[in-house]
Amino acid sequence: MDYYLSNVSQVKKDLVPIKGSKGAYIQWLVTKDHGAHYAVRKFTLEPYGIIPMHYHKYQETVVITKGKCKVCVADKTYELKEGDYIFIDANVKHAFVNYEGELEFFCIIDYPDDMSIHTLDEKCE
């Protein structure tokens, strides 16, 4: 495929498939099905939504486009707001906790051979 054109509003919104997630939705905008070597995803978290502590073999860059949240990465905690972004390397544990108001962010990932996600029994505090 030479190119692909669409609109975010036309992409199916699914629940985030990470065990323990709450009020978290994902849209797969660009994928290997389009011929890309990476994926672009949009996440939406409802007020107080959570993507719990987890890790995976793919790298990701997260760009906050609306709202603010707490991000736990490795053993540190940060507050990210609209315009902030973070790169998270493969196999680094991380979690997202939304505050009041809707949170939106784009997440770009690579495609390693193993796309499995491993949840951890740790809180993001």
From TrEMBL:
A UniProt-annotated Pfam family: Cupin_2
Domain of life: Archaea
Family matches, as Gene3D superfamilies: Jelly Rolls
InterPro entries (alphabetical): Cupin_2 (IPR013096), GPI/OXD (IPR051610), RmlC-like_jellyroll (IPR014710), RmlC_Cupin_sf (IPR011051)
Keyword DNA-binding: no
MF GO annotations: metal ion binding
Protein name according to UniProt: Cupin domain-containing protein
Keywords assigned by UniProt, alphabetized: Metal-binding
PANTHER family per UniProt: CUPIN TYPE-2 DOMAIN-CONTAINING PROTEIN, OXALATE-BINDING PROTEIN
Keyword Metal-binding: yes
Record-annotated Cupin type-2 domain positions: 43-108
